[in-house]
Amino acid sequence: MNISIIAVGKLKEKYLKQGIEEYLKRLGPYAKVEIKEVADEKAPENMSEAEIQKVKRKEGERILSNITQDTYVITLEIDGKMLTSEQFAAKLDELATYGKSKIAFVIGGSVGISEDVQKRSNLALSFSKMTFPHQLMRMILLEQVYRAFRIIRNEPYHK
């Protein structure tokens, strides 16, 4: 399975980089995983709705340029579908079973994901009704992908 995580913005925090590297290493035996960072737009604090949409559109174009036609796209969205770890594992297993071996997870920037990216998405997934920093979501996502592969293979994992 080839998994891409397309994330808006650069990761700066050393502790997050270390955690992400650890999960990428752990995922090595299960899948080829790569992180593609796309540039974020400057987003001042008090933007108008039109400015927010412009930022989303520009970031969305960069995201979509990293997605091929044969890729199954899962966007991380606060209003997406919530799954248990077991349901998430079953979904990844189902995708692999039915030949969807290219998966892209999309983590938007600070103002969210554009409508065009949402339209391209095959599944909108939510990890919580809470808001997390998009940099931290990379590590949370990688941990859940790793956990999913452990569940699929009936290997022990922390409950």
How many β-strands, per DSSP?
A: 5
What assembly state would you assign to the polypeptide chains in this entry? single chain
Fraction of residues in H or I helices: 40-55%
What structural category arises from helix and sheet content?
alpha/beta
Instruction: State the helix count.
Output: 5
Strand arrangement across the biggest beta sheet: 2-1-4-3-5
Q: Can you summarize this structure?
A:
The chain has 159 residues and is an alpha/beta fold. It has helices spanning 14-27, 49-64, 85-97, 115-120, 134-152; strands at 2-8, 32-38, 72-82, 102-107, 123-126.
Element layout with pairings:
Layout: E1 2-8, H1 14-27, E2 32-38, H2 49-64, E3 72-82, H3 85-97, E4 102-107, H4 115-120, E5 123-126, H5 134-152
Parallel strand pairs: 1-2, 1-4, 3-4, 3-5
Helix pairs in contact: 1-5, 3-5
Description:
The mean pLDDT is 94. This protein has 159 residues and is of the alpha/beta class. Strand 3, helix 3 (85-97) and strand 4 (102-107) form a beta-alpha-beta unit. The protein is built from 5 helices and 5 strands; from the N terminus they run βαβαβαβαβα. The protein starts with a strand and ends in a 7-residue tail after the last helix. The protein has a 5-stranded parallel beta sheet. It has helices spanning 14-27, 49-64, 85-97, 115-120, 134-152, and strands at residues 2-8, 32-38, 72-82, 102-107, 123-126.
Features:
single chain; 159 residues; alpha/beta; 5-stranded parallel beta sheet; 43% helix
